[in-house]
Design a protein that fits this description.
It is a single chain. This protein is an alpha+beta fold. It contains 4 helices and 7 strands, in the order βαββαβββααβ. It has helices at 27-40, 75-81, 140-152, 163-177, and strands at 5-6, 45-47, 57-61, 83-105, 108-126, 132-137, 187-188. The strands form 2 sheets. It has a 5-stranded antiparallel β-sheet, sandwiched between helices. The protein has a two-stranded parallel ribbon with strand order 1-7. A hairpin with a 2-residue loop joins β4 and β5 (108-126). It is globular and about 40 Å long. The two termini are 21 Å apart.
Length: 192
């Protein structure tokens, strides 16, 4: 089932999330619905707060990037290991150079900005089978994971902008929160 994505201005996007356990109701169906929603909105990552849930869960699917010229050196890895589910994740290490990348967000349509993030992360999490994992990512997946991880911490990518950039997009953000924007996927605005 395709779920509505909560837009900028929805309070759930600003809350720090809580851990879940193996008994979380219909978790398998929720994860399936999240992937359905992700694909319907043409995204590569989706966090539970973006569908209105205050839990520590996010998904990524970087496999579409395997066709991009910029990622040909990791094409096979993206094809075989690009889709991931992160339950109760905790980033335990960020390292490497800060690199700038133009980010967008399904909850903040039509705004893209350059964001600096560390190039390497190590993250602990449970997968969909409740197997605890610790993995290090040092490619585009590190970027996607950090963006989605911020969502479960109540942080949006626009929070990482300079005061000047924030001022320049303030009006656009207000319009999004009021529903004055068109998107081609299901979205829930704060004012509606």
């Amino acid at each position: 089932m395709i779920l509505p994505i909560y837009a900028y201005g929805e309070p759930v996007l600003r809350k720090k999330t809580v851990d879940i356990d193996k008994n979380y109701p219909e978790l398998d169906q929720l994860i399936k619905n999240m992937f359905d929603t992700l694909y319907a909105s043409h995204g590569i990552g989706l966090a539970a707060p973006q569908i209105g849930l205050n839990i520590r869960l996010f998904i990524i699917d970087a496999t579409p990037l395997a066709e991009d010229e910029d990622y040909q050196d990791i094409k096979k890895d993206l094809e075989n290991n690009g889709q991931k589910i992160f339950i109760n994740p905790k980033i335990i290490k960020r390292e490497g150079e800060l690199w700038k990348f133009n980010e967008g967000c399904l909850s903040i349509p039509d705004i893209r900005e350059d964001i600096k993030r560390p190039e390497i992360i190590t993250i602990e999490y449970y997968d969909e089978n409740w197997v605890k994992k610790t993995e290090t990512f040092k490619d585009i997946r590190a970027r996607i994971i950090q963006h989605e991880y911020d969502h479960i911490e109540g942080i949006l990518f626009t929070d990482l902008l300079s005061p000047l950039k924030k001022k320049l997009i303030k009006r656009k953000l207000e319009d999004i929160s009021k529903g004055k924007i068109q998107v081609d996927y299901k979205i829930k605005f704060h004012s509606r």
